[in-house]
């Protein structure tokens, strides 16, 4: 892959922002996301993605609707999901939503499919967590069939059967770009390879290089399944500011309470300052000035043979000005610097 083709994008989970001392309403945050998609396009970023969550303070529960709004406000930037919880979505409805988004955006839709690390959608939509694997496997098979075949005849155990079914509006031949999101499971890596789908590594803690074995497994599995090489991307959290000090202090203020809550909920490590700074120095937090963040992205891109990096730039109550500055600097300074660094020492994709 040529360095010029390396993609940089943004991920949002629709987390509530602040403006001065005021917490934005849910509706204001939704409108802010459309504004941020427009800003991302204006500074030359490649992709703007939204998650799918059902937690307090998150406003990304109707992702296709939000992306369609962003499509009407932009012209070039690709629009996708940082995660779509396929297990608790109906593949037929999902196909209709994203084929419509692709039509509205003139072919700019894409998505990352995942099994869900946050499981609120299971009780919300009446699914049993004991069916976690079966739901994803069967629904993935159907969703890919809907994208790739016409008409579709399918039967399984998680929804009613289809017989010679044609859906409209149709996606482009072969469907839209569809990635598999992986948080660490080797089985998920092999699943992505078996279906010939791109791999998105969700790395939110620890050294990103520990995923090198997953990359090796993926590339070998692709070959064994008879598929051509596919893109590999990384999703991680962070903030870009004019100086390292500003970025480190700003992110700490808003990341610490979120990380503390997750530590209580999921048994993660407690977010003390020393561990935080270690995550910035050699872990999965991409926090700093444009040069610091660019150097780190380029280093990880080489080590993991990435062709795409997405920065998850919003976190609960982060000021809208800090969010905007991250977007501006990521597009105008970080992205060109990453490509410059990769041109000097390219990845081995």
Strand-helix topology:
Layout: E1 7-12, E2 18-19, E3 22-23, H1 26-42, E4 47-50, H2 63-73, E5 78-81, E6 84-85, H3 91-104, E7 111-114, H4 121-124, H5 132-148, E8 152-154, E9 162-165, E10 178-182, H6 186-194, E11 199-202, H7 212-224, E12 232-240, H8 244-266, H9 273-282, E13 285-288, H10 290-304, E14 308-312, H11 320-344
Parallel strand pairs: 1-4, 1-14, 4-5, 6-7, 7-10, 10-11, 11-12, 12-13, 12-14
Antiparallel strand pairs: 2-3, 8-9
Helix pairs in contact: 1-2, 1-11, 2-3, 3-5, 6-7, 10-11
Question: Gist?
Answer:
The protein has 349 residues and is α/β, with parallel strands linked by helices. The protein has helices spanning 26-42, 63-73, 91-104, 121-124, 132-148, 186-194, 212-224, 244-266, 273-282, 290-304, 320-344, and strands spanning 7-12, 18-19, 22-23, 47-50, 78-81, 84-85, 111-114, 152-154, 162-165, 178-182, 199-202, 232-240, 285-288, 308-312.
The span between the termini is 6 Å
Beta fraction of the residues? 15-25%
Number of strands: 14
Compute the CA-based radius of gyration.
Answer: 19 Å
Kindly state the percentage of residues in helix. 40-55%
Low-confidence stretches: none
In DSSP terms, counting alpha (H) and pi (I) runs of 4 or more, how many helices? 11
Mean pLDDT value = 95
Biggest sheet, open or closed, and with what strands and sense? 10 strands, parallel
The class by helix and strand makeup works out as: alpha/beta
SSE order, as H and E?
A: EEEHEHEEHEHHEEEHEHEHHEHEH
Overall geometric form: globular
């Amino acid at each position: 892959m040529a360095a010029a083709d390396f993609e940089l994008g943004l991920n949002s989970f629709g987390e509530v922002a602040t403006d001065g001392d005021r917490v934005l309403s849910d509706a204001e945050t939704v409108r802010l996301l459309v504004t941020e998609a427009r800003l991302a396009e204006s500074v030359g970023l490649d992709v703007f993605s939204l998650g799918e969550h059902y937690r307090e303070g998150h406003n990304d529960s109707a992702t296709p609707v939000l992306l369609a709004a962003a499509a009407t406000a932009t012209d070039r930037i690709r629009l996708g999901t940082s995660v779509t919880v396929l297990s608790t979505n109906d593949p037929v409805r999902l196909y209709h939503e994203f084929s419509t988004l692709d039509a509205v955006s003139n072919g700019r839709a894409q998505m990352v499919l995942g099994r869900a690390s946050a499981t609120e959608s299971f009780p919300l939509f009446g699914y049993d967590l004991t069916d976690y694997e079966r739901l994803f496997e069967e629904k993935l098979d159907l969703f890919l069939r809907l994208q790739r075949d016409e008409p579709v005849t399918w039967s399984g155990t998680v929804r009613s059967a289809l017989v010679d079914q044609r859906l409209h509006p149709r996606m482009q031949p072969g469907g839209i770009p569809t990635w598999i999101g992986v948080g660490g499971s080797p089985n998920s890596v092999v699943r992505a390879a078996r279906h010939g789908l791109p791999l998105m590594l969700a790395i939110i803690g620890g050294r990103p290089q520990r995923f090198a074995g997953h990359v090796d497994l993926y590339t070998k599995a692709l070959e064994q399944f008879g598929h051509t090489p596919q893109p590999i991307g990384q999703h991680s959290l962070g903030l870009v500011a004019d100086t390292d000090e500003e970025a480190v202090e700003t992110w700490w203020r808003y990341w610490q309470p979120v990380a503390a809550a997750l530590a209580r909920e999921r048994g993660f490590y407690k977010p003390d300052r020393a561990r935080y700074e270690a995550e910035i120095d050699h872990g999965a937090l991409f926090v700093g000035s444009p040069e610091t963040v660019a150097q780190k992205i380029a280093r990880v891109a080489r080590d993991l043979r990435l062709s795409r990096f997405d920065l998850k730039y919003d976190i609960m109550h982060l000021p809208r000005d800090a969010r905007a500055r991250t977007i501006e600097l990521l597009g105008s300074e970080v992205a060109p610097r990453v490509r410059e660094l990769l041109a000097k020492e390219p990845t081995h994709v």
